[in-house]
Design brief:
This protein is of the alpha+beta class and 247 residues long. It folds into two domains: 131 residues, Alpha-D-Glucose-1,6-Bisphosphate, Chain A, domain 4 (2-Layer Sandwich), CATH 3.30.530; 105 residues, 2-Layer Sandwich (Alpha-D-Glucose-1,6-Bisphosphate, Chain A, domain 4), CATH 3.30.530. 26% of the residues lie in helices and 43% in strands. It contains five helices and 13 strands. The strands form two sheets. It has a seven-stranded antiparallel β-sheet. Strand 9 and strand 10 form a beta hairpin.
């Protein structure tokens, strides 16, 4: 049985409507803050590929700098998702972005809906971090590495803090030193903390998300902004870290 859902989010962004449009309505822009690999055919189609699967959406609204909407193909059980982004320019080069995420979910709808309510807001804050720290740049790679299901929030929070070299309080503005075997050490700042997840951490050349997500799955994402950076090596490093941190 399918269940209708709707999630509404709004965020103020320190970027122009044109910059926001590039980030949400082009493949390289979306890749720089969202999950997976994304391709956009202007006014026509969106293709989203993640972990070996590709989903196609039809563009339902295309107003550059103002509105971008698309809807996934309907599955055999009648489920689908629709995304509607509204861009409103404000003074001094700022923008308000509104997202309506709607559609129909399947049998596991309660857990899915809970994950979407949390995840949509986290990704918009990750978008804000991208626009703030990497204006005019697009990522050379992005990886999403799922780990185990860990119901203990405090254990997950402690592991995230360890990876970021934080021994005291972890809040917005906390300075960090990323220290993970297989990755170069890097200093950065927490842009958003939402216990037990850390939606956005920025270093000079990378954007990270540490998420305790759907059904308590631990997830790490990294977007690298250095030309020629080795995304495969980063993915393997995070797999090893997850295996060791939650052994």
């Amino acid at each position: 049985m399918r269940h209708q859902f709707e999630v509404r989010e709004e965020i103020a962004l320190d970027a122009t409507p044109e910059e926001v449009w590039e980030a949400i309505a082009t493949g390289p822009g979306i890749d720089s803050w969202f999950m997976g690999h994304n391709e956009v055919e202007p006014g026509s189609m969106v293709r989203h590929s993640l972990m070996g699967q590709t989903q196609t959406s039809s563009v339902t609204a295309w107003e550059p700098g103002k509105r971008f909407s698309h809807q996934t193909e309907q599955n055999p059980d009648g489920t689908f998702m629709a995304f509607d982004y509204l861009i409103e320019g404000r003074g001094q080069g700022s923008t308000v972005l509104r997202l309506v995420h709607s559609g129909f979910l399947g049998d596991d709808w309660e857990a899915q809906y809970d994950a979407l309510k949390k995840g949509d807001g986290m990704y918009l804050h990750k978008l804000a971090a991208y626009l703030k720290h990497f204006p005019g740049r697009t990522s050379s790679f992005n990886v999403l590495v799922p780990g185990p299901q860990v119901p203990d929030h405090e254990r997950v929070w402690s592991a995230f803090k360890n990876a970021l070299g934080v021994t005291g309080e972890l809040t917005e503005g906390t300075r960090v030193r990323l220290s993970v075997a297989g990755l170069p050490a890097a200093e950065g700042v927490v842009e958003r903390a939402d216990y037990p997840s850390v939606p956005s951490v920025c270093t000079a050349d990378a954007l990270y998300m540490f998420m305790h997500g759907y059904r308590d799955t631990v997830v790490v994402e990294q977007h690298g902004f250095t030309a020629g950076a080795d995304g495969r090596a980063a993915e393997e490093a995070w797999k090893s870290w997850l295996a060791q941190a939650f052994a």
